[in-house]
Design brief:
The protein has 396 residues and is of the alpha+beta class. The protein folds into two domains: 3-158, no CATH class; 179-395, no CATH class. It contains 17 helices and nine strands. The chain has helices spanning 3-23, 30-40, 52-72, 100-107, 153-157, 175-190, 199-210, 220-251, 256-262, 270-286, 291-297, 301-310, 323-331, 335-345, 348-374, 379-389, 391-395, and strands at residues 74-76, 79-81, 88-90, 93-95, 112-120, 123-137, 140-151, 162-165, 170-174. The strands form three sheets. Strands 5-6-7-9-8 form a five-stranded mixed sheet. Strands 1-2 form a two-stranded antiparallel ribbon. A two-stranded antiparallel ribbon has the order 3-4. Strand 3 and strand 4 form a beta hairpin. Helix 7 (199-210) packs antiparallel against helix 12 (301-310) and helix 11 runs antiparallel to helix 15 (348-374). The termini are far apart. The structure holds zinc ion (ZN). The site of zinc ion (ZN) has 4 residues, from helix 8 and helix 10.
Length: 396
């Protein structure tokens, strides 16, 4: 890649970090600094970040952000705005940093993927990564990303491993974040006293990794080679999850964001929002082309365990689970008990049946919601029916 390209993206990335820092330093938790430091110093995912050199780096970074704000920032009523100014030079042409389509047209040829996105206001995110694999599903480009040249800190700290961007019409998956997650899971087993996990969860993690010939007790560097295939399979699963979502938008027009907007759901309707998200995710995963069916058809035990862990299955009822996961496990009311039996009997046929059943019943729920959406009544009334009739059934 053109070194000028990298320098320009780096500057914009830096400006975005600085803006977040000067306006809301508390929005950058310690973990983000550690991730950034590890990334810039190319540490292995299991290498600890602490000590004098890290503290020094952090102090210098904060000072540099402040000077950048003084130099480039504009004071506005809601904080200091540091414009993302640098245009992106690529092989003699220049592009605006948000013109991802044109930039990718150039960079993809060199095997590099670029994105600038603003998922959360005031937090511009950048990603510049090597493309490991590129293919199409349902006329959408899929990018499986490997080594990351550059990331905005928000990316590092977030759990985003895969994503469908409706703005850019493509799916991308960050293998790096899946890989990091593998080592985090292993450390849960290695140092049980450091993490609040219940026994069953630790057992699932060990079992999941064991299915891929990984012994959690071994040193990280000795299993590094074995982690790669686990990451491959999980990356494919992330794509399948997104495909499940896309299919539902296409075939059933079930799109929670649109429906919630039409029903004028506000931020205070957090339960309804979480319910819709959970329903959408449950449908995506159990769809005939979704993630759970994919793993069962492949008889991929390790990935099935890991994805079940992601869904919070195996946790104690009173665990501090987020509401979306809680709803999701209630919506997958065939899958959850069948999976728990599966951990003992490995009955693949029962798993397939359970997933099919959950899909059918959740599809009915989605269709009912779509009918309610179409009713000739005011949005508040329609929203109230969903709240009254559908969510309490889950909380039983
Ligand atoms: Zn999803």
């Amino acid at each position: 890649m053109d070194s000028k390209t990298l320098t320009a993206v780096k500057f914009n990335c830096y400006a975005s970090d600085a803006q977040l820092y000067v306006n809301k330093p508390s929005a950058i938790p310690e973990g983000v600094y550690k991730d950034l430091y590890a990334h810039e110093n190319k540490l292995d995912p299991w290498e600890p970040v602490s000590g004098e050199s890290f503290e020094k780096w952090k102090q210098e970074r904060k000072e540099a952000w402040k000077s950048l704000a003084i130099e480039h920032g504009n004071v506005k009523p809601d904080g200091i705005e540091i414009p993302v100014v640098a245009q992106i030079p690529i092989n003699g042409n220049t592009f605006m940093p948000f013109d991802c389509r044109s930039i990718n047209e150039e960079l993809n040829k060199e095997g590099i993927f670029y994105i600038m996105d603003c998922v959360v206001p005031g937090k511009t995110e950048f990603l510049l990564a090597n493309i490991d694999k590129q293919y199409k599903v349902m006329d959408k480009d899929v990018f499986i990303l490997g080594n990351e040249e550059l990331v905005r800190s928000a990316f590092l700290s977030s759990s985003i491993s895969g994503y469908y961007s409706s703005k850019f019409g493509l799916i991308y998956v960050r293998k790096r974040s899946i890989e990091d997650n593998c080592y985090i899971l292993m450390s849960y087993v290695k140092q049980p006293s450091r993490f609040v996990l219940d026994e069953k969860e630790r057992e699932f993690i060990a079992e999941a990794l064991h299915a891929n010939d990984i012994d959690c007790k071994m040193p990280f560097k000795d299993v590094a080679r074995k982690v790669a295939p686990v990451v491959e399979k999980r990356a494919e699963g992330v794509v399948r999850h997104e495909v499940g979502h896309l299919k539902h938008m296409q075939d059933n027009n079930f799109e929670s964001e649109r429906i919630l907007t039409n029903l004028s759901a506000s931020h205070s309707d957090i339960k309804t929002i979480n319910f819709m998200k959970a329903l959408e995710d449950a449908l995506a995963d159990t769809h005939p082309e979704g993630r759970l069916r994919y793993y069962t058809s492949q008889k991929d035990k390790g990935s099935l365990y890991l994805v079940s862990l992601d869904m919070g299955i195996g946790l104690k009822e009173d665990s501090d689970r987020n509401q979306v996961l809680l709803f999701q496990s209630k919506l997958l009311n065939e899958y959850v008990p069948t999976f728990l039996k599966f951990t003992k009997n490995e009955d693949w046929v029962a798993m397939e049946k359970a997933i099919e059943k959950d899909y059918a019943s959740n599809l009915k729920v989605a269709q009912t919601i779509l009918e309610i959406e179409k009713m000739d009544r005011d949005p508040e009334y329609k929203l109230s029916i969903i709240k009254k009739n559908m969510i309490p059934a889950l909380l039983k």
